[in-house]
Amino acid sequence: MTELKLVNDNSPVSSRDVLTEIMREGARKMLAVALEAEVEDYLQRYEEDRDGQGRRLAVRNGYLPERIIQTGLGSVEVRQPRVEDRGSDGDGQRRRFRSRILPPYLRKTKSIEEMIPWLYLKGVSTGDFSEALVALLGPEAKGLSASTVTRLKEMWAKDYHQWDRRSLQDKHYVYLWADGIHFNVRLQEDRTCILVVMGATADGKKELVVVQDGFRESEQSWRGILLDLKRRGLKMGPELAVGDGALGFWAALPKVFPKARAQRCWVHKTANVLNYLPKRIQPTAKKTLQEIWMAQTRQDAERAFAAFVETYQAKYPKAVYCLVKDKAELLAFYDFPAEHWVHIRTTNPIESTFATVRLRTYKTKGCGTRLATLTMVFKLAQSAARHWRKLNRSELLEDVRKGVRFVDGIREIAA
């Protein structure tokens, strides 16, 4: 049985509210039973999956290390069941068990503002919200009936519509990051995803700019988004845009904001190049690629670039072509402040935010309508935005905006 116990609770029993104690104990038991039932359901689902010797591919394997979850009922020490699964999903990827109730990244239960979007995207029906929230939040979830949750979702949908139509009259984003994120949730088309744009303002703050559905590789989808930004008052385009090379964003950007420069994401590019190389040499090749984008000057990066080409051209021309075709866009960051390189060499500002959101929607199917999915992803991203930090040396963004020249990340001194 999954073990849970309250810790760091030294208050005398006589001073506690009896009803609260009953609710607390009930929630503890409910959570323990729910975790065990979740694992048992998973194992039964794949009970017939066997290897060549008839052994089950998905089996129970003890417990995960204990961890403390901060809840509305106090601190709870949890021992979750561990599942070992050697099976594969329909796409040939290694199958993984992830608890919908207590995912690995959860260290404290969320506020209702965050928890309902999370549960909704995980496929929990509206009618089951009250039970789930009481177990996770305790008394904070009091009175959350299905109708209350429905009203909250309607309110959040209005918030999303207002945000999606807000004026951008006084905005200028010096940097933009763009990406298309697949969440494995049902939208209107099989290949649609959530198109995301984040921006850095002249004072160094990161802002969520766009959350819309569309086609990642479609120029038309991205062109519609960029034109909408203009219609809402965004007069000036970014000085630099950062993204993955597979985006239709790159075909649309110069047609809407022709002065914006492009920086290809080094994380995406590294993965793309390594796909053309045998696994046995990928670690060495990855280190060689890192020497390019971690070089302190453009000249050093050029040398590392040439070394990669010389090393792999003869045997792996596709890997070399994948790299050199975007050389100018990969090295654009050298013309911007060195303090900003950590922010603009990759799409990490988007990836780090949406990795958690995407994890929460892992393998979720048919979780709701297009609008409901957009709304819930928006609310989770909005919650994450409260923890974003400003860009390093953000005062340098004003120099970038004014067109001050930087050479190898250093501000050029006028003669």
Structural Rg: 25 Å
Give the N-terminus to C-terminus distance in angstroms: 75 Å
Mean pLDDT comes to: 80
Please give the domain count: 2
Elements, N to C (H/E): EHEEEEHHHEEEHEHEHHHHHHHHHEE
Q: What would you call the structural class?
A: alpha+beta
Query: Strand order of the main beta sheet, please?
Result: 8-7-6-9-10
Shape: globular
Assembly type of the chains comes to single chain
Entry keywords:
five-stranded mixed beta sheet, 15 helices, 2 domains, three-stranded antiparallel beta sheet, alpha+beta, 16% strand, 415 residues
Can you describe this structure in just a few lines?
It contains 15 helices and twelve strands.
Give a description of the structure.
The protein is an alpha+beta fold and 415 residues long. It has helices at 18-45, 112-121, 129-137, 146-164, 219-231, 249-256, 266-274, 282-293, 298-312, 317-324, 327-330, 341-344, 348-360, 370-385, 396-402; strands at residues 3-7, 58-63, 67-71, 74-79, 81-85, 173-181, 193-201, 206-214, 240-243, 261-264, 406-407, 410-411. The strands form 4 sheets. It has a 5-stranded mixed sheet with strand order 8-7-6-9-10, sandwiched between helices. It has a 3-stranded antiparallel sheet with strand order 1-4-3, covered by helices on one side. The protein has a two-stranded antiparallel sheet with strand order 2-5. Strand 9 (240-243), helix 6 (249-256) and strand 10 (261-264) form a beta-alpha-beta unit. Helix 2 (112-121) packs across helix 3 (129-137), helix 2 (112-121) crosses helix 14 and helix 8 packs antiparallel against helix 9. The chain starts with a strand and ends with a strand.
